[in-house]
Amino acid sequence: QQQVKQSPQSLIVQKGGISIINCAYENTAFDYFPWYQQFPGKGPALLIAIRPDVSEKKEGRFTISFNKSAKQFSLHIMDSQPGDSATYFCAASTQAGTALIFGKGTTLSVSS
Amino acid sequence: EPEVTQTPSHQVTQMGQEVILRCVPISNHLYFYWYRQILGQKVEFLVSFYNNEISEKSEIFDDQFSVERPDGSNFTLKIRSTKLEDSAMYFCASTGTTYGYTFGSGTRLTVV
Prior knowledge:
A: mainly beta, five-stranded antiparallel beta sheet, B: mainly beta, seven-stranded mixed beta sheet, four-stranded antiparallel beta sheet, globular
């Protein structure tokens, strides 16, 4: 019940295209859903996050869509660029100060 | 922007030896964490630390592991007797009273 399931495992998108990564969870106590971007040899960096009281949050080219009833959330990267090539992790936690549970990650390659 | 600083960036140790990984969290943060990431896998929670004691730990965090905040700035992870399977990236993170987890760049631990 503590798992966060992420798909796809890898994704290849053409420059300018839309990248979509999906996550699903079971624990209804989760109330914070961040997405992290990780480049090789670096730590995860917070990209965007959402709480369950909203269904969508947009920051620049990055959008989180959240479906509370389906217990799913997704990351959309609009106008994908080669510099977006990285591993993306979804995560969830129950409250501030508690453990983040990560998905298995999606390796995104944006071809020019 | 405030950073979480980790040292060393890479540590090679012999199996059975003790290692100490060091972290300097963001100064006004209250919660401190250790996560690990085995090569190519997801980021896994190890332990959280609040008010000078462990607040939460995972199954991975067994008796071989310990954490300490020896002074007002450092946060350490000790592995008493390293095994080959402890080889991983270890990330320190910190948060304040909100959800904003900030991760360090990690320490790559190689056990030979």
